[in-house]
Prior knowledge:
With about 400 residues, the protein is an alpha/beta fold. It has two domains: about 15-185 and about 375-385, Glycogen Phosphorylase B (Rossmann fold); about 200-370, 3-Layer(aba) Sandwich (Rossmann fold). The protein is about 35% helix and about 15% strand. The chain has 14 helices and 13 strands. Strand 6 (about 155), helix 6 (about 160-170) and strand 7 form a beta-alpha-beta unit. It is elongated.
Amino acid sequence: xxxxxxxxxxxxxxxxxxxxxxxxxxxxxxxxxxxxxxxxxxxxxxxxxxxxxxxxxxxxxxxxxxxxxxxxxxxxxxxxxxxxxxxxxxxxxxxxxxxxxxxxxxxxxxxxxxxxxxxxxxxxxxxxxxxxxxxxxxxxxxxxxxxxxxxxxxxxxxxxxxxxxxxxxxxxxxxxxxxxxxxxxxxxxxxxxxxxxxxxxxxxxxxxxxxxxxxxxxxxxxxxxxxxxxxxxxxxxxxxxxxxxxxxxxxxxxxxxxxxxxxxxxxxxxxxxxxxxxxxxxxxxxxxxxxxxxxxxxxxxxxxxxxxxxxxxxxxxxxxxxxxxxxxxxxxxxxxxxxxxxxxxxxxxxxxxxxxxxxxxxxxxxxxxxxxxxxxxxxxxxxxxxxx
Length: 388
């Protein structure tokens, strides 16, 4: 736990403002990636940043390029931990931030600590619902969100699906909800084939079609459905066994189950489990087709990064996926938890390589026009500035 001498700042609209971001953990993930992009790219002359991690920060923190960002780890215990509220209160009081920005339900109740630390401006953003509230109807969590409306100045949703849910289900006033899509660095994630050095040799040799997915191996991401689809595809069309390969990037508690599905289907030798990869830029450029089989999503950074790289995307019809993947234009939308449908769509691409190129090019153009990092930064800047 890091304690800092309380800062006494004059609240000058033209001076820099300190934003205190409260998250559950600073680790690999779409929420965390968006936060790091925000911190690295908002104007340093206008904003300072601190991050309170309710649990801890992993090596992911080294993606933060600024040297003046304070990272405070609370090491909250599982379940109820009343002392965590006190530790957060101490941290906020010492930082004396202009704005406290909480993200997702895991950090929302820490607004209580902010109130007792005399914070008057709160922003809360929703980046996606987890498996415990996948339907959006969780009574306790939604009650907390409704109560937060008494003190939260503004809400941010990363998809229209989440924005509508905040207004219709949580009853947050329309004028307090903003839709800000995640933005991707189109200069970093660019098109053009390249072989990632990490790839196994068999994935580099010959004219292979590489299907890839990136994400935590957890039920909400449902890579098991992709594994089943891959089994169906190769067993129905064994002529593609020399040509087709699957790359699964990430790790988590579903790994052994996914591996068993592939083993039972007799295709485990055509799949590479990479584990977590810190730098995925070259990996995107090494694959031909990106798949996101999630059961629930906000706005997926991996979809945007894949599209920016010029890849067609096969994604499930959940959350914000349909807001960024245009069916039959930049990729294909399929039903969630439907491996047979997914296998058929993958087969269409394998039989028609030109479709891979057409949808990939359309996806990159869409990202440049609507989902760039510059657009995202401008909208966050406008919201933060509006609170003064």
